[in-house]
Amino acid sequence: MHNEHTDSHFQKRIDDGEHIEPKDYMPDGYRKHLIRQMSQHAHSEVIGMQPEGNWITRAPSLRAKQILLAKIQDEGGHGLYLYSAAETLGISRAEMIEQLHTGKAKYSNIFNYPALNWADIGAIGWLVDGAAIVNQVSLQRTSFGPYSRAMVRICKEESFHQRQGYEIMARMMKGTKDQQAMAQDAMNRWWWPALMMFGPHDIDSPHSGDAVKWKIKRESNDTLRQKFIDKTVQQAELIGLVMPDKDIKWNESKGHYDHGKIDWDEFHRVIKGNGPCNKQRLDHHINYFNEGAWVRDAAEAYKIKHLKEELVIA
Amino acid sequence: MKTEDNQLDLWEVFIQSKSGLPHIHSGSVHASDVKMAMQNARDIYTRRGEGTSIWVVPSKAIKASNPDDNDMLFDPSNDKIYRHPTFYIMPEGAKNI
């Protein structure tokens, strides 16, 4: 009889292209890697509601307000899909939230930048969601079943996010000189942080080795980043935006765009907590979590009261 | 120290995408009672016309088979190929069968 509780049997299943389900044997490292990655992903969706939330009351039209509300509701939903998927690995949602609040778990660095004006809402949808989509499309084929299923669902919903952002940018670029300048300024501020969303270069990426072997990650950071750049340059040029990187140039022999050096010192500075909004984002989450405690307590009390009533009737 | 679980009960959500089709597992929600579970399932899993019917089931009520039992549960069907129509030899020329 073959033993199914071994790392070699697990690796064979992965190599054969099977999905791993929650009750299947998995090495500790696989479980830990997934919990770290999926909880970070879920936290990112939820924290990502904040920069856009500021603009709901200031959206320039009722149409824009409705769209923004729907988009932010989606982000909340995506967070919930991902929390649920992570919970199948044996971590509770309360533990994940605690790890976020103590700083043990991270969220995407991009949300530590502020959304200063309406053009930023365009740039976030187009560039930030655009970069996220490239990553998430790849993750649809990740080896852990619940994560893969959550990604399929999320990808179906994300393309609306990117299109609404690009529509805002395109409309501003057809507007007044001031509006055009605002759109270009937002592009300039969000472009580099969006490129950093894919993480360090492959040669500097500490978690990639196992993640690739286990097929949690299906494509490397640099491959995904390149896909995003190749897609975005044409979209920028079409609406008259200038790429904020003078080294962006089509490389005929590679079939890709070359790009300039990414400022990783800035990336590490922000990741260590010194970005423009790190403290604000986390404080906001902690405050609302604490202020909402009475709602959860009331719901539990209501449940218990009705359970007792049912017992009396029975 | 164990973190206190203050995130309400877990429920599994099954959605029927249109009448005539089966309810299929969509994911989970947290909720304190069935009414909240139904509302959350509606808000989280059917924002774009994904469903015509929702089932919510307390996750505790679901008993899943153990992957260790897969050989015992699922292997015996492999040696009963006579359960498949392709097992049978039809006379040459037989039609509509």
What is the gist of this entry?
The complex is a heterodimer of chains A (314) and B (97). Helices cover 67% and strands 2% of the residues of chain A.
Structural features, described:
The complex is a heterodimer of chains A (314) and B (97). Chain A is mainly α. Chain A folds into 2 domains: 7-274, Ferritin, CATH 1.20.1260.10; 277-314. In chain A, 67% of the residues lie in helices and 2% in strands. Chain A is built from 13 helices and 2 strands; from the N terminus they run ααααααααααββααα. Chain A has helices at residues 7-15, 28-47, 49-53, 62-87, 93-102, 118-139, 145-173, 177-196, 208-213, 221-238, 264-274, 278-291, 293-313; strands at 249-251, 256-258. In chain A, strands 1-2 form a two-stranded antiparallel ribbon. In chain A, a hairpin with a 4-residue loop joins strand 1 and strand 2. In chain A, helix 6 runs antiparallel to helix 7 (145-173). The longest helix of chain A is centred in the middle third of the chain and has 29 residues, at 145-173. The radius of gyration of chain A is 22 Å and the shape is globular. The mean pLDDT of chain A is 94. Chain B has 97 residues and is α+β, with helices and mostly antiparallel strands. Chain B has a domain at 9-64: Roll (Ubiquitin-like (UB roll)), CATH 3.10.20.520. Chain B has helices spanning 34-45, 70-74, and strands spanning 9-16, 23-31, 53-58. In chain B, a hairpin with a 6-residue loop joins strand 1 and strand 2. The longest helix of chain B has 12 residues, at 34-45. Chain B is elongated, with a radius of gyration of 22 Å. Chain B starts with 8 loop residues before the first strand and ends in a 23-residue tail after the last helix. Chains A and B meet through helix 4, helix 5, helix 7 and helix 13 of A and strand 2 and helix 1 of B.
